[in-house]
Specification:
The chain has about 425 residues and is an alpha/beta fold. The protein has 16 helices and 12 strands.
């Protein structure tokens, strides 16, 4: 049998190949016209998607129980896509956001997006009344985290979501710290979920990536006059409305992809998408291990004389304990923070004394990392924002990896030893309480 007539070899790859192509060819001009005009599905240019990106989007949408997803170049880009799409050209655009939010998100909201006219009010995610009081006529979005970074508080999501929906606002939840293995915000009122896929989804500290997931609950046609840029016909969409083009419950995803991702270009590459998707295959076992180790370290550090307070859901008291036990959480996550007793110099002594744990501004890695939020991730907060965040100059954030618990414990105890007060003057350790307000 000649080579030209030989049957294809048996067997197919179990790992998806990387589709490293910027552009996609069409058989006919009619086909190209249809796809570019959003009258037919397909790939046009890698800025708005490719097979690797699509596979990642489908996997995370499945894990979140969502209707679909859009991937972006980073978690920050995914948040930006969500907020730009939901606030659009509204001149009175306003968002209510958590006061216990990751510093990079605060920068985006109060600086860059403020330049577009978006106004922001902060509210404590543990106090729904603050969210109710912050609502105004132009409020389109509520934005909060399912487990706060870095102090790991749990939000009153269901109550907050009810407030948002009563006022016609969409609820966006950053689920990066919890991951869909530990918590699925869509089951508790979230309309959209965002992830920094760089963190736990990828899991190994390598690729950057982000995702915006639609849970399927948001339908702009239920109040079309409030969302005209989503419900009215426009030249951009060939004289149709986005709802007509993408369907009511996927309208936000369609506009996020075909307008903001296409125009601004924060796209996810095929290689990064492939690497993140590979990481998701071990997400459950990694997060389970990291969550258990973090809880064990938190319990050990809670009684240490050099530690003022430990922040982790497993140590929560009062209402926070109720949320952890009954609010749909399947673990406390691999993030914990401690407030070091002493001075700023003492904090530096602890960080510099760590031998195994590395100083780096990332979480979700298989390697354990430490960060000083006040001097790193949250360094641009205003004094008012800093006070509302609950972070102090004494706060250290630990992202627990997959190392042996004994190794991490020994490293932390060795680093804390020089700043521990003498035994005879050791104050009675305070009870750790992530719910303190």
């Amino acid at each position: 049998m000649s080579a030209t007539t030989a049957a294809p070899p048996l067997g197919t790859p179990i790992v998806q190949p990387i589709h490293h192509s910027a552009a996609y060819a069409f058989d006919t001009l009619a086909d190209a016209r249809a796809v570019f005009a959003q009258r037919a599905g397909g790939y046009t240019y890698a800025r708005t998607g490719n097979p690797n990106v699509a596979a990642l989007e489908a996997e995370i949408a499945r894990r979140e129980g969502g209707a679909g997803a859009v991937a972006a170049s980073s978690g920050q880009a995914a948040v930006a896509l969500a907020l730009l799409t939901l606030t659009g050209p509204a001149r009175d655009a306003h968002a209510v956001v958590s006061s216990r939010l990751y510093g990079g998100s605060v920068d985006l909201l109060t600086d860059t997006l403020a330049d577009t006219g978006l106004e922001v009010s902060f509210a404590d995610p543990r106090n729904p009344r603050e969210w109710e009081d912050a609502v105004r006529e132009g409020t389109r979005v509520f934005f909060l985290e399912s487990i706060a970074n870095p102090l790991t508080e749990l939000p009153e999501l269901e109550a907050i979501a009810q407030i948002a929906h009563r006022h016609g606002a969409a609820v966006v939840v950053d689920n990066t710290v919890a991951t869909p293995h530990l918590y699925t915000p869509g089951e508790h009122g979230a309309d959209f979920v965002v992830h920094s896929a760089t963190k736990y989804l990828a899991g190994h500290g390598g690729p950057l990536g982000g995702l915006l997931v639609a849970t399927g609950s948001f339908d702009p046609t239920e109040d079309a006059a409030r969302w005209p840029w989503l419900t009215e016909a426009h030249h951009r969409w060939g004289g149709r409305s986005p709802v007509e083009v993408f369907g009511a419950r996927k309208t936000v995803l369609g506009v996020a992809r075909c307008k903001y991702l296409n125009d601004l270009g924060p796209c996810l590459g095929a290689g990064a998408a492939h690497e993140i998707l590979q990481g998701t295959a071990t997400l459950d076992v990694r997060v389970q291990r990291q969550s258990a180790t973090a809880a064990a370290l938190a319990a050990t550090l809670a009684g240490h004389p050099a530690v003022e307070r430990v922040h982790h859901p497993s140590l929560a008291q009062g209402r926070q304990r109720e949320l952890y036990a009954q609010g749909g959480y399947r673990g406390g996550g691999g993030l914990l923070s401690i407030d070091v007793r002493g001075t700023a110099s003492d904090v530096g002594t602890v960080v510099n004394g760590l031998e195994h744990i590395r100083l780096a501004a990332n979480i979700g890695d298989v390697r354990t990392l430490v960060a000083h939020p006040a001097g790193m991730t949250h360094c641009r907060l205003t004094p008012e924002q800093f006070r509302a965040s609950g972070i102090t100059e004494q706060t250290l954030r630990l992202s627990v990896g997959l190392e042996d618990e004994e190794t991490l414990t020994a490293d932390l105890l060795r680093a804390l030893a020089p700043v521990a007060p003498p035994a005879e003057s050791t104050p009675h350790p305070r009870e750790s309480d992530t719910a303190a307000v």
